[in-house]
C-alpha cells in the first residue's frame, strides 16, 4: 500500500463507493478505494438492484411519460415533506441520468414490463402512479459487476480486507484516512461505508423502532454495515440526518431470511387485526405496508386455510407447507378446525372474523376487491388467477410483525453536492458522503423498491464528481452541484 497523496480516497466498495470511485476517475482524479471485507459489493451486491428513477429511456421505450418533477412531488408527499426539498430535487433530477450512465457502462434493463424485483424490466416500485422501478439483469450482483469492471478499466486500486479506522483531519479539513494504522493522504475523502444495521448499539440509538420485533428481528444487510460513518462524522462534528428512520419489512414471526429465500405467504390469505377485520391490501408495497401493519391495535395475523397451506410451493426456507404444520404443532402458529375456533384462539370477535372471511370470499376469489383494490396490485405483479376462497379447515393464523431489517437511514447529513455538513450547516472541507452513510434522502417512508440503490449510486456519482473537482481546485466553492 502506498501512502502517497491521492486526489480522492473512497471508503467502502459497495454501490455508492464504486459509483463515486468510477466517476472521480472519469473526471481525471487519482483514486484509491478501501473495502473492509474480502470482496466488493456490500449490501448493494445482495440487493435486487431495483433502481427508482424518472424520465428514463426504459420508461420511454414503454411509452411512459415521466419527469423528475413528478418524481420529486411524489417523493416529498410520501415523506410528509420532512426532507429538504433542494436535496430531494437534486436526487430526483440525477437519478435518471445515473441510470443512463449505468446502461452506458453495460447494465442491462430491457424496456418491458416486469412483474417483480427479479424480472429485468420496469415494475411498480411502490405506490407511484407512473412505474419507476428499474430491475437490472442479474440484480444487485450485476450492478456491482458492471461498476467493478469500470473501476478496473480506470485502473483504480481497491484495497480489500482493510477497514478504514478514522479520518485524518487538519484545521477542520479532511486530508486523508487511517487504515492498517497507516495514514494515507488525499485532497478529498468520500465516505461510502454503508449503514449500521449490523451494529446493535447504533440501531438502539438511531433506529430503536427496529427493536420492537424483539428476538424475531433479523438483519439482511451486508456484514460491513457496522456504522463506521458515525465515528467518522463525530471526528469532524458533522450533522446527523435521518435519525429514527430505516427500512424494516413486515414478515411472519417465523421468518429468518430475506423473502426470496424465506418464500412467500399464500396468495389466498387475508390480513386481520385485533378487531377481527381485514385492514389492508395484503400485497401492498412496503412503501406503505410496514406503517399500516404497525398501526393496527391488538396485533395482526395472516389468516389462511388448509388448501392454501398445501399449495405453498416447495423449496423455500420458511413459507413451506411442512414448516407451517410444524409451527402449528408447536402452538406458535394458531390453528383450529373452524373459523370460530380460530377467532377464539386469536382472541378476536368470532362474528367479525366470520363476516370478514365471508366478505373476502365474495370479493377477490371472484376477481374484485372493493375494499382494498388488491386486484390492481395483483395485476401489476402479473398474478392473474383469482385466489381460492378461504373455506377448508383447518384454518391458520400467523402473527405478522416488522422484523426484517434491510437498511438504515441515519448518517452524515449531506447537501445536494453530497458534501458532508457540519453542525452549523456548512460543508466540512474535503469530505463527501453517499449511500446509507450520507443521509437526508432516505426518509421517513421508503419510497418503494429501488429507493436505496438509486440513492447510493446517484449520490455516489455526485460525491465522486465533486470530490474530484474539489481535489483539482482545492476549494469547496468550486465544487458545484452536478456530476
Ligand atoms: C437483501 C437486500 C435487498 C435489497 N434490495 C434492494 C433493492 O432491490 N433496491 C434498493 O433500492 N435497495 C435495496 N436494498 C438496500 C440497498 O441495497 C442498500 O441500501 C444500498 O445498496 C446501500 O449501498 P451503500 O453503498 O451505501 O452500502 P453498501 O453497498 O453496503 O456498501 C458499503 C461498503 O462499505 C464497506 N465498509 C464498511 N465500513 C468500512 C470501513 N470502515 N472501511 C472500508 N470499507 C467499509 C462495506 O463492507 C460495504 O462493502 C436491499 C438491501 C438488502 C440487504
TrEMBL record:
Q: Is Cell membrane among this UniProt entry's keywords?
A: no
What does the UniProt keyword field contain? FAD, Flavoprotein, Oxidoreductase
Q: Which GO terms describe its biological process?
A: steroid metabolic process
Report the InterPro entries cross-referenced here.
FAD-dep_OxRdtase_2_FAD-bd, FAD-oxidoreductase_2, FAD/NAD-bd_sf, Succ_DH/fumarate_Rdtase_cat_sf
Name any one GO molecular function.
Answer: steroid dehydrogenase activity, acting on the CH-CH group of donors
Keyword Oxidoreductase belongs to the record: yes
> In which domain of life is the source organism classified?
Bacteria
Q: Which cofactors is this protein said to need?
A: FAD
Domain FAD-dependent oxidoreductase 2 FAD-binding intervals? 7-453
Q: Please give the name of this protein.
A: Fumarate reductase flavoprotein subunit
Q: Which organism is it from?
A: Rhodococcus tukisamuensis
At the highest ranks, the source species' classification is:
Bacteria, Bacillati, Actinomycetota, Actinomycetes, Mycobacteriales
Amino acid at each position: 500500500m502506498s501512502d502517497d497523496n491521492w486526489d480522492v480516497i473512497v471508503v467502502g466498495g459497495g454501490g455508492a463507493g464504486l459509483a463515486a470511485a468510477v466517476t472521480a476517475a472519469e473526471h481525471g482524479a487519482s483514486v484509491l478505494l478501501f473495502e473492509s471485507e474480502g470482496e466488493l459489493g456490500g449490501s448493494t451486491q445482495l440487493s435486487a438492484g431495483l433502481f427508482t428513477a424518472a424520465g428514463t429511456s426504459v420508461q420511454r421505450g414503454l411509452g411512459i411519460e415521466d419527469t423528475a418533477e413528478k418524481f420529486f412531488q411524489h417523493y416529498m408527499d410520501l415523506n410528509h415533506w420532512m426532507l429538504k426539498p433542494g436535496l430531494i430535487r437534486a436526487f430526483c433530477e440525477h437519478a435518471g441520468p445515473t441510470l443512463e450512465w449505468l446502461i452506458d457502462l453495460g447494465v442491462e434493463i430491457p424496456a418491458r414490463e416486469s412483474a417483480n424485483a427479479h424480472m429485468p424490466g420496469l415494475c411498480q416500485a411502490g405506490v407511484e402512479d407512473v412505474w419507476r422501478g428499474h430491475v437490472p439483469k442479474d440484480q444487485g450482483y450485476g450492478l456491482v459487476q458492471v461498476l467493478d469492471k469500470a473501476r478496473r478499466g480506470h485502473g483504480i486500486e481497491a484495497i480489500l480486507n482493510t477497514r478504514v479506522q478514522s479520518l485524518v483531519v487538519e484545521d477542520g479539513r479532511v486530508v486523508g484516512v487511517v487504515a492498517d494504522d497507516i495514514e494515507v493522504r488525499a485532497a478529498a475523502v468520500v465516505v461510502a461505508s454503508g449503514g449500521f444495521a449490523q451494529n446493535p448499539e447504533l440501531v438502539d440509538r438511531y433506529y430503536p423502532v427496529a427493536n420492537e420485533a424483539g428476538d424475531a428481528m433479523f438483519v439482511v444487510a451486508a456484514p460491513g454495515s457496522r456504522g463506521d460513518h458515525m465515528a467518522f462524522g463525530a471526528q469532524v462534528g458533522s450533522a446527523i440526518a435521518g435519525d429514527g428512520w430505516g427500512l424494516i419489512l413486515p414478515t411472519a414471526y417465523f421468518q429468518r431470511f430475506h423473502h426470496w429465500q424465506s418464500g412467500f405467504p399464500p396468495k389466498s390469505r387475508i390480513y386481520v387485526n385485533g378487531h377481527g377485520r381485514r385492514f389492508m391490501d395484503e400485497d401492498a408495497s412496503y412503501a406503505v405496508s410496514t406503517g399500516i401493519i404497525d398501526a393496527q391495535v391488538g396485533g395482526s395475523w395472516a389468516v389462511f386455510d388448509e388448501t392454501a397451506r398445501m399449495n405453498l410451493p416447495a423449496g423455500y426456507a420458511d413459507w413451506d407447507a411442512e414448516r407451517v404444520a410444524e409451527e402449528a404443532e408447536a402452538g406458535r402458529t394458531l390453528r383450529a378446525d373452524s373459523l370460530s375456533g380460530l377467532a377464539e384462539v386469536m382472541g378476536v370477535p368470532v362474528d367479525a372474523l366470520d363476516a370478514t372471511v365471508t366478505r373476502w370470499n365474495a370479493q377477490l376469489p371472484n376477481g374484485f376487491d372493493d375494499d382494498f383494490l388488491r386486484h390492481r396490485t395483483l395485476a401489476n405483479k402479473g398474478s392473474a388467477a383469482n385466489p381460492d376462497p378461504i373455506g377448508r379447515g383447518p384454518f391458520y393464523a400467523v402473527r405478522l410483525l416488522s422484523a426484517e431489517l434491510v437498511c438504515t437511514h441515519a448518517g452524515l447529513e449531506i447537501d445536494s453536492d453530497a458534501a458532508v455538513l457540519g453542525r452549523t450547516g456548512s460543508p466540512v472541507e474535503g469530505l463527501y458522503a453517499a449511500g446509507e452513510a450520507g443521509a437526508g434522502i432516505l426518509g421517513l417512508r421508503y419510497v418503494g423498491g429501488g429507493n436505496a440503490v438509486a440513492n447510493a449510486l446517484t449520490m455516489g456519482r455526485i460525491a465522486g464528481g465533486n470530490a474530484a473537482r474539489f481535489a483539482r481546485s482545492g476549494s469547496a466553492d468550486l465544487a458545484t452541484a452536478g456530476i
